Amino acid sequence: MFPPEDALPLRIRDHPRYHEIASGYNLCRNLEWSIQREIDLGKDLEKDLIHCRILGYLFHYFPARDIKPFVREIVTTNGRPRELLQLGEFYYDFFIRSFKSNEGKSPPSSSPLSPHPSDNVAQLIECILQEAPQDRRTAKKHALVRDSFQCPVTKVYDWDAVMCSEEMEMKITCEGAEGGFTQCVHIFLEFTNANITPDSTEFWATYAASVWGVLDRFGYSALREELNGPNIHRLENIVTMEKSLRIHFDRLWIWFTATEEPNTYKLEEIRDWLISRYPNPTYLSIHAACAKIAHVSGAGRYIEKIFRCMADVRALSEGGGSAELLDEAILSSMHAIPV
Question: Each residue of 244-283: pLDDT tens digit?
Fold first, then answer.
């Protein structure tokens, strides 16, 4: 069940419009109690409970710059259950699933580097920085340079980089460093804002507008333009990650929470780590909020269950029984952007 009102974050309790915020939060608490009572009587309302909890936990975890538009949406429902649940479904569809990827949807880990070895790391860096990042391959090159050719979390060196530099090869053979296959990881996924222009197809334009419409409600309207088109590959939106760790990140099993020290992040529930100067703390804070909300609302477990069902189903049932699976399959496939 939702925590009591007095457990809301201090930044919320100190808000000048706290009374209105508390009223909106309590509407979600009342709805949760009502749904849970029906579930206890044997009704199957799992999705309704998830949609309700997404709304309630947004009060606790989302790093809102301006929470008033979101609260206004809640309050204007006057507690009407169907309207609240439709709003929760909107956030489920276009917020949490914008960050949560299906395992196996990650693009292949092909080498972005030249196979010809360089005498030293400086020569390799000079060669890489001649090309500005405009796509996934060039973005990974620049991210490798910024991250010292390592996964910032596991500290393993990128095997392709090692094969291109005798200097890095010495770190593996003589200094005991470890190597691994790394991937270019976007904090905001590529499909969320891939070249949205007036000429974009109606489906992509509508879907992207919905994703960013959610962020607009919390005061992040500038991110739409900041990450539009090739800007989605800007280094602030990129992290170099060892392949297996990347799967955990994409599935919201791990997230990075900012600490009071600038550019220092805690790998939630695993261990502390430091990313030197990068990436963008706003992007990471939004991803962290999505991961926490997915976990506490039950949405993460629900999506995993749907994915398992998708893997087991070989054909769609007649009469619309597979409609939900089809909906999830379409949305999850958006994560597999060809490169």
Answer: 888 888 877 888 888 888 777 877 754 444 344 447 888 8
In whole angstroms, what is the distance from residue 251 CA to residue 256 CA? 13
Which amino acid appears at position 205 of this protein? A
Helix, coil or strand: residue 248 = helix
Return the structure tokens found at 172: 């593996």
Which residue in this structure is represented by tokens 């309700």? 52
Count of other CB atoms within 10 angstroms of residue 5: 16
- Kindly report, residue by residue over 191-235, the tens digit of the pLDDT: 666 555 555 555 556 666 677 788 888 888 888 888 888 888 888
CA distance 305 to 301: 6
15 within 8 A of 45, measured Cβ to Cβ: no
Cβ atoms of 84 and 35 within 8 Å: the answer is no
Write down the pTM of the prediction: 0.70
Q: Which of 90, 95, 73 is nearest to 215 (CA)?
A: 95
